[in-house]
Amino acid sequence: MAMSGDFTKALIESELLSLLARISEFLAEQKVPAYLVGGFVRDTLLGRDTMDIDIAVGANALEIAPRLAELLGGKFVLLDESNKIGRIVLKDWVIDIASFTGRIEDDLSRRDFTIDAMAVDLKHLVGDNQDVSLVDPLEGQADLDQGILRIVAETAFGADPVRLLRAVRLATELGFSIDRKTEVEIRRSAHLIASVPGERVREEFLRLLGCSRGGQFLDYLDKLGMLTAMIPELALEKGVEQPQEHRWDVFEHSIKAVSAVDFILRQGVWEYQTGDVLSTVSWSPSMAQYFNQTVNSGSTRRSLLKLAALLHDIAKPQSKSFEGTGRMRFLGHPEKGAIITEKILERLRFSAKEVKLVSMVIKCHHRPTQMSQGELPSKRAIYRYFRDVGEASIDTLYFSLADHLATRGSGLLIPQWQLHTKIVEHVLEEHFQQESVVPLPKLIDGNDLINIFGMKPGARIGELLEQIREARASGELTTRKEALDYISKFFEG
User: Fold this and answer.
1) Strand 85-89 with 94-99, pairing
2) Rounded to two decimals, what is the model's pTM?
3) Widest CA span of the chain, in angstroms?
4) One fold for both 6-146 and 148-230?
5) What are phi and psi of 89, to 5 degrees?
6) Taking the domains of the chain in order of start, what are their residue ranges?
7) pLDDT at residue 2 in the model
8) Cβ of 77: how many Cβ atoms within 10 Å?
9) Which of 151, 196, 204, 312 could bridge across to 156 with cysteines, CB 3.0–4.6 Å?
């Protein structure tokens, strides 16, 4: 099938053609047939930017890739020894080299979806042709034009169950619909996702969490039977009722909280919006940059906050109780939820840094509203909050707003919401002010407590120094003399 010159034009404009020409020349010298395949062809046809290049070679990729990496000045990474897949990491590009035997059409027939089962002969692409020939035995370009995601064969999910999650991720990223027969196969095979190694689930799930419309895709995952197959602990939340102020049960609330995070972080809409609720939420380009920070490979603060939203009430089912008055309680669920979350994320091979951030948001997600009782929190309370919550402090503040929206839905009370957003704004402003004060040289240290007050080394010294830091952050102390007088009071009488 012929393609328009737009394919070649897109590559020229991306300054990629010269790189492909070097690769093609090298492989031609080795007399190795090579094709651009998969997501690279798909994304180029869609006009989407990509840093990932997929190449299939009619030879042992693990022999070819290291030599090609050396030629290009890149780093070789072994991806899959049994299937002979290697990766070359360059400054601006990642090139995956995979082996195929026989005809390229046979290789394409073993891929996942028709839109990924297209290929372009590399030597034709970098020649003088204005148009290049698309190898498309499964009519992937037609599905691409129609916005349809379709599996190549009924055996696709059994051959590699991570494709179940990838189907929803691709459909979400591209705005495509999954065709009916493919959806039936997903439902039938959903249980297989539990057999996928945690690190592969993590990679696909994080990419999915990076998309907007978070709550919608999670709801779709659940309807397909995949969400609780992947995280069985979530099944316990279904049907667990909550106090009257909650519009949804625990499971539905958790899904809505993900959508609310998208909305609060300016990446989605909130369908239950009552008036202009977003205008009172503190936001700036620097805050957007903060949530786009990379935490680990594949994760950002934004995507991990959505993960925290999904899991924040994971311990509510086992924490539910009733007081003598009939009042419903979920005592200790944030702390218990943090422990359960750690186990879930470790099972899915999240890094220690990711686990710590997500579990801390969950453990402390009530702290922002506990800092004050209907009024702005004190400087000391704000200092303690940032001291205790640490790296997750700002994330937890914004999650508290999302949690508020996901609790009330269309029953949101605007005065309460405005107070909540005012508190968050005040806490952030005060924190940034305190940051400029606290790092100043110490007023006193442990040696002063030992030499001046005769204290013995121990935990008590650390406690007193922390009280000095608190008092200084709140503006109560500004000089060394004031600090010494402050300590003296503890030894009077």
Assistant:
1) antiparallel
2) 0.85
3) 94
4) no
5) -105, 115
6) 6-146, 148-230, 248-435, 446-488
7) 41
8) 15
9) 151
Alpha-carbon distances of 406 from 211, 259, 315, 394, 423, rounded to whole Å: 19, 8, 17, 19, 18
SS3 108: helix
Cα angle: 58, vertex 60, 63; to 5 degrees: 130
Task: Mark 7-40 as b/e (b = at least 16 C-beta within 10 Å).
Answer: bbebbeeeebbebbeebbebbeeeebbbbbbbbb
Give residue-wise pLDDT tens across range 270-318.
Answer: 988 777 899 999 999 999 999 999 999 889 999 999 999 999 999 999 9
Helix axes 214-223, 301-311, angle to 10 degrees: 50
Token pair of 239 as six digits: 């049907």
Q: Quick: pLDDT tens for 132-142.
A: 788 999 999 99
What span, in angstroms and rounded, lies between the C-alpha atoms of 108 and 36? 11
Does domain 148-230 fall under CATH 1.10.110.30? My reply is yes
- The DSSP result for 109-155, as a single string, is TTSSBGGG--EEEHHHHTTT-SS-BEE-TT-HHHHHHHTEE-BSSTT
6-146: CATH architecture: 2-Layer Sandwich (3.30)
Torsion of CA 391, 395, 397, 403, to 10 degrees: -140
Q: Which residues pair with 88 in a beta bridge?
A: 76, 95
**Strand 85-89 vs strand 134-135: parallel, antiparallel, or unpaired?**
unpaired
Please say if the pLDDT value at position 264 is more than 80.
Answer: yes
Residue of 383 and 8 predicted with greater confidence? 383
CB atoms within 10 A of CB 146: 11
Residue 385, C-beta contacts closer than 8 angstroms, at least 6 positions apart: 367, 368, 371, 377, 393, 427
Q: How far is CA 317 from the centre of its chain?
A: 25
Q: Which residues lie closer than 8 Å to 421 by C-beta, 6 or more apart?
A: 280, 281, 282, 401
Let me know: does 414 contact 275? Beta carbons within 8 Å.
Answer: yes
Res 233 pLDDT > 70 = yes
